[in-house]
Q: What sequence folds into this?
């Protein structure tokens, strides 16, 4: 598996990678445990502070790690590790050390204890910003406090889940409708 | 512009079209006004009831129409009307009748007064389920009470926004990793 060379990225602009809707990997740490889960239900909520709403089902082993540590990393995997992403979503951190099992490299963050997944295209270090809907909907609102993004390629080939084992792989990138935007609306 | 032939679709399975993260059009009606807005910040929140979290900025003309009527329709446009989608996002319903301006066909729903956009691939009729985060985050939680989806093609070619006038167009569809899913995890 390749490891991307990464650079700091402005946290207010992470919608560039999250708004198109890829499956992401959420990594967490609490006490002596770490874990990784796949997540498809997330939304950008604000540019600055950089807020992201995430649904982490209470049935997941990651739920308690994230709730207790009040931190996580949102990692963006690309199509080259799609098989690993699926397998991560189909086993539980209660019985498997996912970094070891899947040969992924945990890398220290600068702001959170949760490990970055080195093999992912981008890593967003997150602190829990609002737990008000955790009990009601399993929705966590995170603030992205530090973003690391690969320097190349310019845009990632991401995977987008449709349910029932089907994925859409991100396709063509285009700016051909850019001229129809008013400057303030970009 | 083409109009899709549509059929009823199970509301608990609309993640099939929303989870991959397309730009959607939100149509609304209140009193004698209708409107359409583009929306990129949304997330699936539950299968059944079929809940979707949506961020509708209070600066949008649609905000008051949706808040007052407690209804909307989430419409999924395809790449063939991308230019129209961008233009819809770059003018305000306070000065433009968007159905007329853009030659779109409002079609009556079965459960809500807000009009379906006939030229879109899918239409999800929504009722406001939770307004608890409307003031705090401009987040509306809707329940999809009726779904209409095109019978053909099987999957839509959707557009996914990255900001700065750039779009990703949905690419290849694949089930090649389906064998790595445990049955209960599909």
A:
């Amino acid at each position: 598996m390749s490891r991307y060379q990464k650079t700091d990225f402005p946290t207010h602009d992470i919608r560039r990678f999250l708004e198109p809707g890829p499956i992401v990997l959420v990594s967490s740490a609490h006490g002596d445990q770490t874990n990784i889960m796949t997540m498809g239900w997330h939304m950008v909520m604000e540019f600055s502070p950089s807020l992201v709403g995430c649904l982490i089902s209470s049935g997941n082993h990651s739920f308690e790690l994230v709730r207790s540590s009040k931190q996580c990393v949102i990692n963006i995997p690309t199509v080259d590790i799609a098989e690993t992403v699926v397998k991560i979503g189909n086993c539980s951190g209660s019985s498997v050390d996912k970094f070891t099992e899947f040969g992924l490299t945990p890398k220290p963050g600068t702001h959170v204890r949760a490990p970055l997944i080195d093999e992912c295209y981008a890593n967003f270090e997150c602190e829990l910003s609002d737990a008000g809907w955790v009990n009601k909907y399993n929705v966590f609102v995170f603030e992205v406090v530090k973003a690391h993004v690969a320097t190349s390629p310019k845009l990632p080939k991401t995977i987008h889940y449709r349910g029932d084992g089907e994925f859409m792989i991100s396709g063509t990138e285009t700016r051909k409708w850019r001229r129809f935007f008013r400057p303030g609306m970009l």
Summary: Chain A touches chain B through 52 residues (CB under 8 Å).
